Amino acid sequence: MSAPIVMPKLGLTMSEGTVAEWLVGAGQSVMQGQTIFVVETDKISHEIEAPEAGEIGALLVAAGETVPVGTIVATWSGGAATAAPPPPASGAIELLRRASVPGAAAARRIATPLARRLAAAADIDLAEVAPSGERGRIKARDIHAAITARRQAPRALETAQPQGQPVSATRMRIAERLVRSKTEIPHFYVSTSAEISRLETLRAELNGDSARAKISVTHFLVAAIGRALAARRHLNAVWRAGALLMLDDVAVGVAVDTDNGVRMPVIAGADHRALDDLAAGINGAAERSRAGRLRPADMGPAAISLSNVGMFGVSQLLPIIDPDQSFIIGVGRAEALFRPGKDGAPVARREITLTLAGDHRLVDGAAGAALLRAVADQIEAPLQLLRPVPAA
Amino acid sequence: MSLPAVVEHLKLYRQMLTIRLAEQACGKLFADGAIPGFIHLSIGQEAVSAGIMSALTNADTIASTHRGHGHALAKGLSLSGFFRELMGRANGVCGGRGGSMHVADFSVGMLGANGIVGGGIAIALGSGLAHKLRGTQAVSVAFFGDGAMAEGVLHESLNIASLLPAPVFFACEANGWSEFSPTSAQISFTLEALAASYRIPFHRIDGNDVRKVSAIAKEIITTIRESGRPIVVECVTRRVRGHFEGDPQRYRTDTEQAVDPLSFTRAALAAEGVAPDALDDIDREVEAEVQAAIASAAESPLPSFASAQAGVYAAAMP
Amino acid sequence: MTEMRYAHAINRALDDAMAADRTVLLLGEDIGKAGGSFAVTRGLQEKYGADRVIDTPISENALGGMAVGLALSGFRPVIEIMFMDFMALTMDALVNQAAKAHFMFGGQSSVPLVVRTQHGGGLNAGPQHSQCLEAWFAHIPGLKLVCPSSLEDAYGLLRQAIDDPNPVIFVEHKAMYPIKGDLPEHRAKLEIGTARLVRPGTDVTIVSYGGMMREAIKAVDLLAAENVSAELIDLRSIQPWDEASVLASLARTHHLVVAHEAVEAFGVGAEIVARMADIGFDELDGPIIRVGAPFMPVPFSRELEASYIPAAAQIVDAARRALK
Fold it and tell me: Among A221, C65, C135, C320, which is 20 to 30 Å from A361 by CA?
């Protein structure tokens, strides 16, 4: 018998399929159940198996070609058992009587509605049930037989699996966001250092007035970032499915460490608000973060965030960009060091290291570097941060 | 002309006018999209409805045709129930489920307009038989158009009515048209000859003079009541509008001016001494009634699908 | 219990109904003087008079329409259409008028009409005198249709049909008229829409009605000899039909066969199968198989007709297929 092998109809609406790959060659002997070729449609990729042992004749359709359902893809002569019996495969390979279309539906389990219902209730995989019905139909009695067999089978040794500690839903969410960020955003990093002696002096002087709220380095950094970004409005954008979404407001997110993980409330208007106002805003957001009471206004859109880990005693942070943003700047602690001065003599400096992570889809290294340097420049000339931004 | 006769004549005029104004309003409502489906107007045929119904009581029954608005209103359907039904409202006389071709009011003996040509004839026959079996001397009127003369069921019913016999008034509104064809092209016989074949007495009347229609109808119905035997009457009339609203009537050749039964009666009433002002008053009153009925219909609620679906089968009486 | 022929049981039902209710009338061709072509109405005109048992000319269309008119006027007419094949001539009266009046007149009226007719082959009456056309009428909203297989059910359903305010088609089987059976002394009306469990079983449900019930019972016995326990249900009513009972049976046996004498294609069985494949899907452990006549007119000669009408062997085959 020499029935040809045709492009099978694998779904109700399928009209054509692609021969994605030939797993056998012309003239090759195959065993029953051996995969001959792989069919691809816009919906699925499916392996077509030999209905019985036999020999492939000629391959009539090349790999990569798309042909209508029913097209003969190879000639075939069946019945020639030439190879050794196939190795036992895991899971029964179901043989279906092909009334009309050879090669079709090699892997579909046919089971009656009742059998399916019983199998689902008993948690039995249909792929492991031997069918007794016509056309390879799995019937209720087959499920009953499988249930009985399972009961009688020796118990497999249950190795002690170490059980993981469940995590909170919040932790899960944060984890998902971070994975998304690292998966979707092509991160690049640029680092620079900023000399902060003048910043520290200014800060000490401002905080001498005990009647007013304390200004922190973080507050200064947010102002610096806001202004640096405002001068580069084209970077105040986020990547959305192949398009740039420009943001109106120059907002900056601030990483806040809480018992429940890091939160990043967003501070609006970071480019033009007065330093005290920014500080109050940041403090309020931080409090709300720690209390778990962030408001929708705290979660507005932003293109950039700040994560200052200097207080934890580390010198540098390579941060992860928030999945809905484009940049993040990590800041370490102030370090005292010597650098060669103009004349080569060592000069004492106090520096913090700023590292910008940027979304390379949006911006390249040069622009990222320029942005970071602009932030550092603002920090090094902190008095300017006290002046109101000139009206646009 | 005696006063009672004039009063009776005025009643007939008013009845015809009610039909005329209601039909004209239907035409307009249909053109405006307020009445869905098909409507078949009987403008020009009012004298037949008004005249025949003037001879009937609520105990007498009629089964009508697809052109049944005039029959329905003359038999006693309320204007509001009528318009509500045509506009598909829940409180229409048939709950919004039947529409123009199925208006009915069993409380006044109106057994329904019928969308099947000839569909009401055998029903009227059955109703006539029911009257006979009850011995009430009530009469059943089977309305049909001259186009329906081609339907076998008319012949079957005439035969059976003659044999039983049954007190059926077979009323043919002969307007000369079978849908879009002249009746002459479709009927090889005359109704007169047909009635004679079935040994049923035949009368032909001018369907435009409502007084004549009424007088003759009364005589005929009395005869039927007393004899229990059927009679066939051909009322020669005119269908002014098309077979259905929207029919452009390109097939019509009878362009000579139809006798308008209303104008005819107005003139007759004037000749009897009724002042035109009085007639105008009636006109205004009836127009106001029609408009009020339409207004109430427009504000009436729409029917609920669930209750329609529940109305397919009658529930048994406990 | 009284033993009598099926035709006589129907006669008894008509007699009792007419005695109980003066508005019950009979109309039909040759039902009065001649007592009906199958003698079903014998003696009734003598008993109730020509005003209540009315012979009509051969005018099925007008007969149907008249019955509608009578029913709308407060009578309960029971008309006889001699052969179900002739129902074709009453279609306007039944489908466009009787079925619609209650609905399209907004509930102002109802049509308490019964149409008695008979269907089926077995007498070599040929293509125009043997058809089973239940499916035509079961498809019309507003009509009801019953097809009893036993004397007791025939009596009960006919009494109920006459009392029903809706048009009911009461289908008899020409080959069953002479069959003898028992009519109990206490004769009750039978609610329309209830099926009867004739034989309980566990492996496969057989649903049937009317004349095919005899073959179905034989099939149950044949299957028992093969160790297949078949459950047999007599639908008795077609519109409405007792889907709850069929579903309950399917839930017990998980296999279903529907058998009727009517042509299989687009027949009553198609509705039952479709409905069970819907509401009973998860109970099915095999395909639902129908048994019906082949898609051809009823042939005349003895041998041809015998091959045409489904028999027990086909029901047995169908059960085997359903169980595969």
Answer: A221
User: What pLDDT, in 10s, does the model give residues C109-135?
Assistant: 999 999 999 999 999 999 999 999 999
Q: State residue A91's pLDDT score.
A: 32
Residue B180: predicted pLDDT: 79
Do A260 and A280 sit in the same domain of this protein?
yes
Partner A contacted by C324 (CB < 8 A): yes
How far C202 CA lies from chain B's nearest CA (Å)?
Answer: 36
Report ipTM (2 d.p.): 0.93
- Whether A234 is covered by a domain: the verdict is yes
Mean pLDDT of B191-203: 97
Q: Residue B102: which CATH number?
A: 3.40.50.970
Q: Please tell me which residue of chain C has the smallest CA distance to A142.
A: C285
Looking at the domain assignment, is residue B310 inside a domain? no
Number of domains making up chain A: 3
Say whether C282 and A113 touch across the interface (CB within 8 A): yes
Asked if A40 and A82 sit in the same domain, the reply is yes
Whether the predicted pLDDT of A103 surpasses 50: no
Q: In the CATH scheme, what architecture does the domain C196-323 have?
A: 3-Layer(aba) Sandwich (3.40)
Per residue, the 3-state secondary structure of chain C, as one string, reads CEEEEHHHHHHHHHHHHHHHCCCEEEEECCCCCCCCCCCCCCCHHHHHCCCCEEECCCCHHHHHHHHHHHHHCCCEEEEEECCHHHHHHHHHHHHHHHHHHHHHCCCCCCCCCEEEEEECCCCCCCCCCCCCCHHHHHCCCCCEEECCCCHHHHHHHHHHHHHCCCCEEEEEECCCCCCEEEECCCCCCCCCCCCEEEECCCCEEEEECCCHHHHHHHHHHHHHHCCCCEEEEECCEEECCCHHHHHHHHHHHCCEEEEEEEECCCCHHHHHHHHHHHHCHHHCCCCCEEEEECCCCCCCCHHHHHHHCCCHHHHHHHHHHHHC
CB contact under 8 A, C324 and A134: yes
A123 and A238, same domain (yes or no) = no
* A168 pLDDT more than 90: no
Chain B: closest CA distance from residue C208 (Å): 25
* Contact A/C (≥3 CB pairs under 8 Å): yes
Q: For residue C282, give the nearest of A117, A134, A139 by CB distance.
A: A117
Catalytic residue among C102, C129, C255, C260: C129
Q: Which residues of B touch C96 (CB under 8 A)?
A: 115-116, 119
